[in-house]
């Protein structure tokens, strides 16, 4: 292959490698949105006791409707700790644990509140499959419910991603 052909092919490859990212940057729109699952008026009418604990921040709420005696409970609390650790410096985020029995954490981060000795929170009116099981809820600054998560590693990973998106686009 002669020198001119090599230079021509190299120029085409470089041109394509430069023009594609520029084209995508100019003509694409990458906006991630987390849908509102339930608006704040329905949250308030469904479960006022939960709604009263929310503030004008992004709220992550752990509903703990079972005693914390089992090994599964430690795993659930470790998952919440993982999220709290990651966002320990973020002042726009509030963590709440609403438990129906006495409950204490062995760790403490900024903006985490434990509310013990509450009644069982029946969240069936928010989502029929929730009932009274332990669950994580994500609320935006307007107290709209944005996410419902089981307390396992995969779901908490999804919560972390959605928290990143919500924090980036709500501020």
Written overview of the protein:
This protein is elongated. Helix content is 42%, strand content 16%. The protein contains five helices and five strands. The model has no long low-confidence stretch (mean pLDDT 83). The longest helix has 25 residues, at 3-27. A hairpin with a 5-residue loop joins strand 4 and strand 5. By secondary structure, it is of the alpha/beta class. It folds into two domains: 1-30; 40-170, Glutaredoxin. The protein has helices at residues 3-27, 40-46, 48-53, 71-86, 153-170, and strands at 58-64, 93-99, 112-115, 135-139, 145-149. It starts with a helix and ends with a helix. A five-stranded mixed β-sheet has the order 3-2-1-4-5, with helices on one face.
- Average pLDDT metric: 83
| CATH class identity of the largest domain | Alpha Beta
Overall geometry comes to: elongated
Q: Strands of the largest sheet, in order across it?
A: 3-2-1-4-5
Q: Any idea what the radius of gyration is?
A: 23 Å
């Amino acid at each position: 292959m002669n020198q001119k052909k090599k230079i021509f092919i190299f120029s085409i490859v470089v041109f394509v490698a430069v023009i594609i990212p520029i084209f995508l940057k100019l003509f694409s729109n990458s906006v991630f949105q987390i849908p509102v699952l339930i608006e704040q008026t329905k949250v308030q009418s469904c479960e006022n006791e939960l709604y009263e604990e929310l503030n004008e921040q992004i709220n992550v709420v752990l509903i703990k409707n079972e005693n914390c005696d089992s090994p599964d409970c430690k795993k659930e609390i470790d998952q919440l700790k993982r999220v709290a650790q990651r966002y320990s410096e973020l002042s726009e985020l509030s963590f709440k644990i609403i438990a129906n029995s006495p409950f204490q954490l062995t760790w403490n981060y900024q903006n985490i509140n434990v509310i013990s000795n509450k009644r069982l929170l029946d969240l069936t009116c928010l989502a029929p499959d929730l009932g009274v099981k332990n669950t994580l809820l994500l609320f935006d600054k307007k107290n709209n419910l944005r996410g419902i998560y089981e307390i396992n590693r995969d779901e908490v990973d999804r919560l972390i991603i959605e928290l990143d998106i919500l924090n980036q686009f709500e501020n």
